[in-house]
Amino acid sequence: MTKYDLYKSITLFLLYQVPENTSASNVEIYKVWRNMSGNFLVDDTFVASLLEYVHAKKHEDRNVMKALAQIDGFISN
Asked: Among 23, 75, 38, which Cα is nearest to 15's?
């Protein structure tokens, strides 16, 4: 699985499974995503990047996230 695929997977998870007003920590969100997606083989050095990404995105407006996901090619228009 490429880094692009991992970012796509976690972005879609945040977009459709995590409410904007979540009180869950970055680690909790990461663990749920990892368990749901089966992405256990993520390189440990990349986990920190994913946690930073979750921190930056977990409270982002979902309409903005959706628009950015379309631009990134994660979802179709």
From this structure: 75
